[in-house]
Each structure stands twice: as structure tokens, then as C-alpha cells.
Amino acid sequence: MLKNKKTSVLLPIGIIAILIIGIIFGSRLFKNNLFTVMKVPDFELTDQNNQKISNKDMLGKVYLVEFFFSKCPTICPVMNSNMKVIMKEINNPKFGIISISIDSYNDTPEVLKQHATKIGVTSANWHFLTGDRTYIGKLADSFNIYVGDEEEDGEGLNHSGMIALVDEEGNIRCRFDDHKMPILYYSGLNYSDAAGKIPKFTGKFHPDRDFLIEDIKSLLK
Asked: What are φ and ψ of residue 128, in 5° steps?
């Protein structure tokens, strides 16, 4: 009888242990299932508080990188809004955002500080960066995120709405699409359809924002 009682006690303990191991392994497996695109390019720029911020400063944090400018009347407000939702949802000191201005002539640290205040940024981990325009253009090329050539008339302030996800070790990561291909970067835009095929400034769908929240939380575990 004593042996059977011990067995009946040990059995649920064993099941619980297996479940815990499964949860831990599952989270690690999901991290590994995020594709490693490349190492984040080296950067060092000045933020809205006149502080130098580099990729080395961001080691140990999961963070997002976007290119934008404060006077942008089209996609930037949408991207800023989606970033704010992500920042609020994650609410973790080990998460940050890097927003790099492509309008260095206007976006001084003082202007970027005003911009951060205007859109309601409260996190100390959201850095709006500025610096030499040629340097920033080359940096965007290193990220493989489109930014218009500053020497082309009317093109210098064109940019993509794509966002890079960087893990704690400084690797750009991404999930796979339905065809098992890495998406490389996430969209910061809104869409008129749930599948994220038709961009629309006032669209109520933002699938990549939801993907980012899920993937950031996984990387932070």
C-alpha cells in the first residue's frame, strides 16, 4: 500500500515537471524559430537628449529600428502611433525603440525632443536619433531598409515603413511567412484588410504590429 501511495504522489509531480520543461523548451524553440537576418549594423548617433546612442548601448535589450522624420505628413504618424501601442503593450525596461531621422537638417535634438513630447513619448528607452545625413543614408543601406538618396530632387525624404527587430545579442530577427520564408522586416503601417495587403493610413488592421508584440515578448523571455 505504501508503495502505491508514493507512486500516486510522484505521478502528478512528474507530469508537472514535464509540463514546465515543455513550456521552457517551447519558448526557447520559438526563439530559435525566429530567423536570424544578420548582425545589426554598427551605429552611433545623437538622441533627443543630446546623448550619444550606439548599437553597443542597446546590447542586452530587445529593440526596434525605424527610419522616419518629424515633419512627415504621411506614414510617419502611423508608424509613431503603432510604436506607441507596442511600447505600452510590452512595458518592459529591457525593450527599446530606435527612431532614426532622415531629415538631419530639420530634426535637431531639440526638435526631436519636441516631437517626442508632442506624440506623448514617456519611455526613456525610446531614442529619436539624428546625425550626418550621408552617414544615415549609408546606415539605412546597411539595414537594407529603403531611404531616398538625399541628392535626388524630391527623393531625399522618401522612406519605407519597414521596421527591424533586434534581439538582446544584437541580431536582426524575424518570423517566417505562410510559405516558410523569412519576412526579414515588419511593416509599421495600417491596412484596410486583415491580411495586410492594402496599406491605408486610417486602416483598422495592423497585422505586423501584432506579430511584433508577440515576437518581442518571446525574445524577452
From this structure: -95, 115
Strands (E) across 27-153 are located at 35-39, 44-46, 52-54, 62-68, 95-101, 126-129
Taking the CA atoms of the chain, what radius of gyration do you get in angstroms?
Answer: 21
Cell numbers representing residue 209 in the block: 504590429
Distances (CA, A) of 141 to 59, 132, 144, 147: 21, 14, 5, 8
Q: Is the dihedral of CA 110, 138, 120, 88 positive or negative?
A: negative
- Residue type at position 173: R
- Residue 178 sits at φ, ψ, to 5 deg, of -65, -15
Q: In what helix (H) or strand (E) does residue 164 lie, and over which residues does it extend?
A: strand 162-166
In tens digits, the chain (221 residues) has pLDDT values of: 445 554 454 445 544 444 444 444 444 444 558 999 999 999 999 999 999 999 999 999 999 999 999 998 889 999 999 999 999 999 999 999 999 999 999 999 999 999 999 999 999 999 999 999 999 999 999 999 988 876 554 445 677 889 999 999 999 999 999 899 999 999 998 888 888 888 777 788 889 999 999 999 999 98
The maximal CA–CA distance of the chain, rounded, in angstroms, is: 88
Cell of 134: 550621408
* Residue 36 cell numbers, joined: 536570424
**Predicted TM-score (pTM) of this structure:** 0.81
